[in-house]
Design goal:
It contains eight helices and 17 strands. The protein has 346 residues and is an alpha/beta fold. The two termini are 26 Å apart. Transfers and isomerizes the ribose moiety from AdoMet to the 7-aminomethyl group of 7-deazaguanine (preQ1-tRNA) to give epoxyqueuosine (oQ-tRNA).
Length: 346
């Protein structure tokens, strides 16, 4: 398949620019993989789609205030988007400026803190904080790194709403957005039903918004993201499988985490894994772990749209997206959700 196979028309007004007042008030489009049947629901109907004994797996990454506004010594403006913290002093970052800074350039943030450009690494720049630790600098001067299709500046509400209620391990520069729909009452309700939970960590990078530039998907190079699937989660999945329950991934990042852990060891058994992933999931991929997933609506021609097509079927997903446009669902990070079961099983 080619990149253009994943194009669809999306009216600009359907791209959600702000979250709803209540997290769980969003809509939910359910797609049954085996039958391709669709149901228009609300997110609060999610418990009806789950069964006691199912396991919900969440990505507990926490979004950091990774966007900084700086100036060169010459006065030129630079927008800094930290992609990955390497330690308390150094990070890899995307820089937006009229002219790319050279090695040795100092950038000033809020006229006080300085960042030094020390190397270029592909599309990224290696930066070093010169006046204290980077986490402190971000805490004082950083902004919530809203996605490029949200065409407004971040505000105080975004610091809380562009974050899941269960976020724990800091390191993401984009939210695992399927989890934004969950509030504590929903989590409590699911627990009362006997729905078990487990966690993975995948620090979502800004590369998740990078367009696929190659028409031939065989030539596309996936960006790297750091993840961890720990032993307790692996054991919980094995217990769920043994009892006949389903593994339900909350978000594409959780899917990538679990399927990476299942593939890197060249083993039929899921094993703990800690490290980077460049896994590109597209039609033809064989899923080993995930039975169902909750996800938001994704950009045309994006790797995330390709992932859900691999999971629930190309034609069913593209039909579901056309349905969502007709029915005026809200798209992307602050938009509505989907519940998908894997093609070929319930």
């Amino acid at each position: 398949m080619r990149r253009s196979d994943f194009y669809f028309e999306l009216p600009e007004e359907l791209i959600a620019q702000r979250p709803l007042r209540e997290r769980s008030a969003s809509r939910l489009l359910a797609l049954d993989g085996p039958s391709a049947g669709l149901q228009d629901l609300g997110f609060r109907d999610l418990p009806a789609l789950l069964h006691p004994g199912d396991l919900l797996v969440f990505n507990d990454t926490r979004v950091i205030p990774a966007r900084l506004f700086a100036q060169k010594e010459t006065g030129g403006r630079v927008e800094v988007l930290l992609e990955r913290l390497l330690d308390d002093q150094e990070a890899l970052a995307h820089l937006r400026a009229s002219k790319a800074p050279r090695d040795g350039t100092e950038l000033r943030v809020a006229d006080r803190a300085r960042l030094a450009v020390i190397a270029r690494e592909g599309d990224l720049f290696r930066l070093r904080a010169l006046d204290g630790p980077l986490p402190e600098l971000m805490h004082r001067h950083g902004h919530t790194p809203l996605p490029p299709y949200i065409r407004r500046a971040d505000d105080a509400d975004d610091a809380e709403r562009y974050q899941t209620v269960y976020a724990e391990r800091a390191g993401a520069v984009a939210a695992p957005t399927a989890g934004l729909h969950f509030d504590q009452p929903m989590l409590d309700r699911l627990a009362e039903m006997g729905i078990a939970t487990a966690r993975v960590t995948l620090h979502v990078g800004a590369g998740t918004f990078q367009p696929v530039r190659e028409e031939d998907l065989d030539r596309h190079a996936m960006h790297a993201e750091w993840l961890e699937v720990a032993a307790p989660t692996v054991e919980r999945i094995k217990e769920t499988r043994a009892a006949g329950g389903r593994v339900v991934a909350v978000g594409t990042t959780t899917v990538r985490s679990l399927e990476t852990a299942a593939s890197v060891n060249n083993d039929t058994q899921l094993q703990p894994y800690r490290g980077e992933s460049r896994l590109f999931i597209r039609p033809g991929f064989s899923f080993r772990v995930v039975d169902a997933m909750i996800t938001n609506f994704h950009l045309p021609e994006s790797t995330l749209l390709m992932l859900v097509c691999a999971f629930a079927g190309y034609e069913p997903i593209m039909n579901a997206y056309r349905h969502a446009v007709r029915e005026r669902y809200r798209f992307f990070s602050y938009g509505d959700a989907m519940f998908l079961t894997r093609r070929g099983q319930r």
